Amino acid sequence: MLGPRQAHSGIRHRWCPRRLRPHDRRRTHHPRRRLDCGGHCEHSSHRHQPRHRRALALVCRRQLAREQTVTLRGNRLPARHTGTREPCWHAAAPAAGQLGSSDAEAGLAVALEAVERFEPQDRVQAQHRRRLIGFAARHPDALHRSCEAGHLTASAWVVNHDATQGLVLLHRKIGRWLQPGGHADGEGSLAGVALREATEETGIDGLEIWTEPVDIDVHLFVSRKRSEPDHLHFDVRFLVRAPRHAATRGNHESEELRWIRYDELTEPELGLDASTRRLARYGFNLAHTLGQRCDE
Question: What is the dihedral of CA 208, 273, 112, 136, to 10 degrees?
Answer without folding.
Answer: -150
